[in-house]
Amino acid sequence: MTDSARQQSSFVAVPKEYVTSPIFAAKPTTQSRTVYLSDGTRYTIGGNLLDTGKQAPALDIRHLRLLLVLLFFRQKDFPPPAKITFSMNDACHQYASSQGGRYSRDLMRLFEDLKNSCFEIQRAGDKDFFIYPILKDFRIRGKYQRRKPKSEKMQKELHLEYAELHEDFIPILMEAVHFDLETFKKFTSPIAQAIYIFIPSRSPQRKQENPFSIDLKTLLREIGAAVPAAKWERKKLFTQNKNSILSQLNGAPTRTGILKARIEETATKEDYQILFWEDTVPTKPSPPSLKSQKTGVFGEIWLRGGGSKEEFRHKISSQTTLTKHELGLIAQSRIRLDGNKKAFILAKSLIGRNSFLSCLTKTNRKNSVPNTTIKGQTSRFIYFLKEEIMKTPKG
């Protein structure tokens, strides 16, 4: 992918739950962290999830920012590769509009955390859970050189060769939404960033007459930030300075309009609360890469393969479900169904039952995937579904 192509859009396809829930804390922490989503799903981040005896930190808003940068650089060729190549200068520029320096050292530590820290996810009502990290590997090379011709001191320069997504993380991208990286980077406060991650998902369709309200103590706890003891201190945290947290949030563009916010005292006088709503004035164009956000990854491939949006809608209008036989084959093949079931049903609607079963069969054959970066049964199955969608006759 050329630099000009990469700069065409600041929208990044990112797992939906990452940008609609406070999974990434507002402040760094060396301990594990547990978050419950609105549907009862439990996320545990960091700690000793793999019983290795090593404690990994919970991921915070800095790690999400780096992940957004990684996904921004991820090539959009079919199939999208797990191994992402870009320079450290490019990473620093996208992360902080910097050309390196201290940010390159900071990013090294964040890359290490993305490799070593895992998520443990348990859906509501399920006894089972699954664990995955975001990165499988990354490679750094370096060299010593003199910054000045006559200087005797040698300085170390670090260069990033690649970052490789873990095969268990790639299926998580099936449930993706588009998120505006450039808007996110404009927030200078980690607290503002953490709030912006999930508050717009609570405030759509809310007007000034019926805003979404949350008291400051609860909000700070939700995003994993320190909670000042006194209510006046909590209010000051949001309102101090010319570029305050409140001013950063108020007027920020969302997918459906403009986020508005104001602070007022609660009815009990025990705390202050923020009221959030949206002005329905679209401020951003639709993401150019996907012609319809609701189509998802499979829909994008359908459109890229020459299919029309009308035919796509007709195909998916007849969606039923997965049969017991198909569910059995998926289980026998060790393909993760959790979080992927809707996408599998959509794929089946596009390619038909026979082709769907053929993809299951090919998943279990050795050496059936030409791209060696596609590993893991779930990733292999998704690869074949994408391939089948691409070549399915259109029109």
What keywords describe this structure?
12 strands, 395 residues, single chain, Arc Repressor Mutant, subunit A, alpha+beta, disordered N terminus
Please, could you describe this protein's structure?
- It is a single chain.
- The chain is α+β, with helices and mostly antiparallel strands.
- It has three domains: 3-180, no CATH class; 186-279, Arc Repressor Mutant, subunit A; 293-391, no CATH class.
- 36% of the residues lie in helices and 18% in strands.
- A four-stranded antiparallel sheet has the order 2-3-5-6. The protein has a three-stranded antiparallel sheet with strand order 4-8-7.
- Mean pLDDT is 82; it is low at 1-8 and 282-294.
Helix content: 25-40%
Radius of gyration: 23 Å
Average residue-wise pLDDT: 82
Beta strands, count? 12
Domain module tally = 3
Low-confidence stretches: 1-8, 282-294
Instruction: Bin the strand percentage.
Output: 15-25%
Q: What's this, in brief?
A:
With 395 residues, this protein is an alpha+beta fold. 36% of the residues lie in helices and 18% in strands.
Write the layout of secondary structure elements.
Elements: H1 3-6, E1 11-15, E2 33-36, E3 42-45, H2 61-73, E4 83-84, H3 88-96, H4 102-116, E5 118-122, E6 130-133, E7 135-145, E8 155-165, E9 176-180, H5 181-185, H6 190-202, E10 212-215, H7 216-222, H8 231-239, H9 245-249, E11 258-265, E12 272-279, H10 296-304, H11 309-316, H12 324-332, H13 341-351, H14 353-363, H15 377-391
Antiparallel strand pairs: 1-9, 2-3, 3-5, 4-8, 5-6, 7-8, 10-12, 11-12
